[in-house]
Specification:
The complex is a heterodimer of chains A (487) and B (482). Chain A is α/β, with parallel strands linked by helices and 487 residues long. In chain A, the strands form four sheets. In chain A, strands 10-13-14-9-8-15-16 form a seven-stranded mixed beta sheet, sandwiched between helices. A six-stranded mixed beta sheet of chain A has the order 5-4-3-6-7-17, with helices on both faces. By secondary structure, chain B is of the alpha/beta class. Chain B has a seven-stranded mixed beta sheet, with helices on both faces. In chain B, strands 5-4-3-6-7 form a five-stranded parallel beta sheet, with helices on both faces. Chain B has a three-stranded antiparallel beta sheet with strand order 1-2-19. In chain B, α3 packs across α4. The longest helix of chain B is centred in the first third of the chain and has 27 residues. Classes of the chains: A alpha/beta (487), B alpha/beta (482). At the A-B interface, α4, β2, α8, α10 and β16 of A face α4, β2, α8, α9 and α13 of B. β18 of chain A pairs parallel with β16 of chain B, so a sheet runs across the interface. Chain A: One of its GO terms (molecular function) is aldehyde dehydrogenase (NAD+) activity. Chain A: It catalyses: an aldehyde + NAD(+) + H2O = a carboxylate + NADH + 2 H(+). Chain A: Belongs to the aldehyde dehydrogenase family.
């Protein structure tokens, strides 16, 4: 550990020196790094798919869609928009301040720490880094030790593509994180669980370090079968894709559970079953298209959730598990007990509870009874229901008639609220996430208002009162002695 | 006799407000407008009482109270009233080929039940301004004013209870005990103005519930005076910004001056001259300055002045009177850089001047210290202005003036580093108390099979083309050419 402490000290020192030198401020430097990231992904596509397969059993198409392709697009967007993002924003000042001018410039925080998660170890590492770099910061990445091949890959490959006096990678688990968190950072970006998020924020409080925490929650999916009956096949396909098609349900924005009216539940289930089979064949374990559970510990957690007697009794499809292969079959539950662990913890696995309601309007109250999730999904064409969902529930985001896809929409901020997180990123929000918006005001030394200065008297007081109220006409009259005011 | 505020009271308070929030009391535009108009009535009907309370608590001159607290608040309320509809409207967001066909927008929603903890130096401004933001954004809010300004705290409690909707807006008076009890509750946002030391404790408490915070702290705001400037005007503005704003007890007060050894005698002379013009030959008797807030702070400032190798650097002022809590307008030159006065935010009427061999050195001096809330520069040199604005990291930068940026609602007011996190004023206040919810409307037209398992090489190629938004490539794949 001593050696690790020294490594961290040294890395921080070097990054701070690099930042102080001003090198990372230049737009040219930032673009070079972003291009290098794209090149790194292009050159190492096969290797990256390999490590993702090793760590998570991810299929290369899934790996490309969710991670590699995503990173390349994010870097490309940053490259294309950087010139626009760095331009200072002019502020209109009230007339009172004429001829002063005001603007806001985005300046990098300095040296930032990115702690990423194991489920999308490439994109959740590189995407925040893209934001940090575009904003002109130096950055240290610690990827998750639960995805060791990806972590090792990043640690080995990043230094040969990026400026390694400004961008560094450290490997390790909680003990390394603890060492890192004792230091002062200019910003910390964390993706992971709320439990760890609290620890990170508490550590950051010591140094008053601003944080962005991308956490999770139970993302509910409302199926209003009345209004989408025509498109039910698409609905079922999208829900299935959103649950089992991305890291086997181990994603912060995975469909966690479904809310549907009791009268439609069995039809829904009877449509989900063949859909699962069309995705993964008769034997999903051998399909090669279903990611595995990340570690034994996570497997055991999910097994425990499923083995709860009340929950187990509610299995209507799937349920088979293979601890050695870290495989859990796509599983559907019908009305597990609402006080069971599985209905009170983020599932983060391939188990889909279907909760039935008398009336789909009850879904609002149900969702509100739980902590604010990262995303709410609703399949409905009923405008009233849409309005109710938007105005009566709170979540990081709401997506109507699809799932997960909000992640791909660069123009939308991606982040949580309440227990699902603090802060946001993606697109220009990534740039802002890692920037301090500095206000700059410039006054003129040519003109001066005597009324600004002591000694105070009632003339000055009245003058200033009128000036602040921007009652310019009255002000002129007052100064010309044409009106007396006792405001 | 006020009831003692206990843990159960804190819990009940939050439960009550949450019930009101959940019932939708604070969401309607009409409710927000009504509350804001009531705040305006408070400013219109009770200015004399506000001025009186501020005089009791701080010896604040009427002009400062009227202009820097009440007038600023009025402006802030009027701006919110004028722009609220706009602020509340969703922002449309652009969608792309990968999410086509879809439309997207960002909806501002209130966070819920928020806590505003304010400071003693501008007790009305720093209490009501954040409350304006909280209410405009549709939240229920609890205000805890500072106990170090008791008359103001009491008046705030009375007025807010009298005028505002107490099912959603409450004031809790008190000190450490009450604040601690409040901080144990789960809030949807905490807005704190005060010291870095307490800021840390607030953030730590907030971490337990993952509550986002805005911390408006402080720091040592440096003022750089270049010889290429209009010295008379520069000095007047510095004096008005320092002693003319609560006698140096303001978060963006000019804390210390940096100038060259060559220019400093002129600076000192100009300061002395203008100080006398503003406050007369006996500044301790001038009614145009606030007093020191209490004996704790008086002792803190005395300690700074009495430190060895500091007390002999006084070139103007230095007199003190603990009975009336006054310290004279004091200027010091070249105190040791490791002295207390150069390492703690002064927050008082003492102004150290540090002289340098040449102006280049300012950047190192400023950079070697924690990032301040504001940094000031007086110069006509365009290059220096640009370099300063680009390289000095501070909450905000003002060239050729002091403090005025806080009155500009179109500029975000907030810190960075130790001067801290988040910003407000104008629309930034509304945003500070809102959650910007991303909303995506997708249709059922067009469901790309490539999204779903089973995965194949063809799907991979198409995906790649789509991700690269390469239209030509997309068609080639679709037509089987790639």
């Amino acid at each position: 550990m001593e050696a690790m402490k020294d490594t961290v000290d040294q890395s921080l020192r070097e990054m701070r020196e690099t930042f102080a030198s001003g090198r990372t401020r230049s737009v040219k430097w930032r673009k070079t790094q972003l291009e290098a990231i794209i090149e790194m992904v292009k050159d190492n596509e096969d290797k990256m798919c390999d490590v993702l397969f090793q760590d998570l059993g991810k299929h290369s198409t899934e790996a490309f869609r969710d991670e590699l392709g995503f990173v390349m697009r994010s870097a490309t967007t940053a490259l294309n928009c950087l010139d626009k993002w760095v331009v200072p924003k002019k502020s209109n000042l009230p007339l009172l301040f004429y001829p002063s001018t005001g603007k806001v410039i985005s300046e990098p925080y300095g040296t930032v720490l990115v702690l990423s998660s194991w489920n999308f170890p490439i994109s959740l590492s590189l995407d925040p880094m893209i934001g940090a770099i575009s904003a002109g910061n130096t950055v240290l990445l610690k990827a998750s030790e639960l995805s060791p091949s990806a972590s090792a890959f990043l640690a080995k490959t990043i230094p040969s593509y990026l400026d390694n006096k400004a961008i560094k990678v450290i490997e390790g688990g909680p003990d390394v994180a603890t060492i890192l968190l004792k230091h002062q950072w200019d910003k910390i970006f964390f993706t992971g669980s709320p439990r760890i998020g609290k620890i990170i924020m508490a550590a950051a409080a010591e140094h008053l370090t601003p944080v962005t925490l991308e956490l999770g929650g139970k993302c509910p999916t409302i199926v209003d079968h009345h209004s989408v009956s025509k498109d039910m096949k698409s609905v079922v396909k999208r829900i299935s894709g959103g649950k089992w098609g991305s890291c086997s349900g181990q994603a912060c924005i995975s469909v966690d559970y479904v809310l549907v009216e009791k009268s439609f539940a069995s039809s829904l289930i009877e449509m989900l079953k063949p859909m699962i089979r069309s995705f993964f064949g008769e034997n999903p374990k051998e399909s090669g298209c279903l990611s595995r559970i990340v570690t034994k510990k996570h497997f055991q957690r999910l097994a425990r959730l499923l083995n709860d007697p009340g929950v187990h009794a509610s299995i209507v499809y799937g349920g088979s598990m293979d601890e050695e292969k870290l495989y859990i079959e796509p599983t559907i539950l019908l009305d597990p007990p609402l006080d069971s662990e599985i209905m009170n913890e983020e599932i983060f696995g391939p188990i889909l509870p279907i909760i039935t309601l008398r009336d789909i309007q009850e879904s609002i109250g149900f969702i509100k009874s739980k902590p604010k999730p990262l995303a709410i999904y609703a399949f409905t064409k009923d405008e009233n229901l849409k309005t109710r969902i938007l105005s009566e529930t709170s979540s990081g985001s709401v997506t109507f008639n699809d799932v997960m896809i909000q992640y791909m929409c660069d123009a939308l901020p991606f982040g949580g609220v309440g227990e699902s997180g603090i802060g946001r990123y993606h697109g220009k929000y990534s740039f802002e996430c890692f920037s301090h918006e500095k206000a700059i005001m410039e006054g003129s030394l040519a003109m001066d208002l005597e009324a600004r200065y002591p000694p105070w008297n009632s003339f000055k007081l009245t003058f200033l009162r009128l000036a602040f109220r921007e009652a310019y006409f009255k002000l002129v009259l007052f100064m010309l002695g044409l009106k007396k005011y006792r405001e | 006799m006020a009831k003692v505020f206990q843990a159960a009271d804190a819990t009940d308070l939050v439960t009550d407000l949450r019930r009101s929030f959940d019932a939708g009391v604070t969401r309607a535009y009409e409710w927000r407008v009504t509350q804001l108009k009531k705040l305006l009535l408070i400013c219109d009907n009770h200015e004399p009482e506000i001025v009186s309370a501020l005089h009791d608590d701080l010896g604040k001159p009427e002009l400062e109270s009227s202009v820097y607290e009440v007038a600023l608040l009025r402006n802030s309320i009027n701006l919110a009233l004028k722009q609220l509809k706009d602020w509340m409207a969703p922002d449309k967001a652009k969608t792309s080929l990968t999410t086509f066909p879809a439309s997207a927008e960002i909806v501002s929603e209130p966070l819920g039940v928020v806590l505003v903890i304010s400071a003693w130096n501008y007790p009305f401004l720093l209490s009501i301004d954040p409350v304006i933001g909280a209410i405009s954004a549709g939240n229920a809010v609890v205000l805890k004013p500072s106990e170090l300004a008791p008359a103001s705290s009491s008046l705030l409690a009375t007025l807010l209870e009298q005028y505002l909707d107490s099912s959603a807006v409450r004031v809790v008076e008190g000190a450490v005990t009450e604040t601690t009890l409040l901080l144990e509750q789960k809030w949807d946002k905490i807005f704190y103005t005060g010291s870095s030391r307490i800021g840390r404790l607030i953030m730590l408490a907030a971490a337990k519930h993952l509550t986002p915070v805005v911390l408006e702290l402080g720091g040592k705001s440096p003022v750089v005076i270049d010889s290429d400037t209009n010295l008379k005007i520069s000095v007047k503005r510095i004096i008005a910004g320092k002693w003319g704003c609560n006698n140096g007890q303001a978060c963006i007060s000019p804390d210390y001056i940096l100038t060259t050894k060559e220019f400093s005698p002129k600076v000192i002379d100009a300061l002395k001259q203008e100080l006398e013009a503003f406050y007369g030959k006996n500044p301790m008797e001038s009614k145009d300055m606030s007093r020191i807030v209490n004996s704790n702070h008086f002792d803190r400032l005395s300690k700074m002045l009495e430190e060895k190798e500091v007390s002999d650097k006084i070139v103007y002022g230095g007199q003190k009177n603990r009975d009336i809590l006054k310290i004279a307008t004091t200027i010091l030159v070249d105190v040791p850089l490791d002295s207390l006065i150069m390492n703690e935010e002064i927050f008082g009427p003492l102004l150290p001047i540090i002289t340098l061999n040449n102006l280049e050195e300012i950047f190192d001096v400023i950079r070697s210290r924690p990032k301040p809330l504001a940094a000031y520069l007086f110069t006509q040199n365009q290059k220096l202005k640009e370099r300063f604005a680009m390289t000095v990291s501070a909450g905000g930068i003002v060239v050729n003036d002091i403090a005025v940026h806080l009155a500009v609602p179109t500029l975000p007011f907030g810190g960075v580093g130790e001067s801290e996190t988040g910003s407000y004023h104008g629309k930034f206040s509304f945003d500070a108390f809102s959650h910007k919810k991303a909303v995506l409307y997708k249709s059922f037209i067009g469901d790309a099979a490539i999204r779903y398992p089973p995965y194949s090489r063809g799907k991979l190629r198409l995906l790649k083309a789509l991700v690269n938004s390469n239209i030509v490539e997309i068609f080639r794949v679709l037509l089987g050419f790639s």
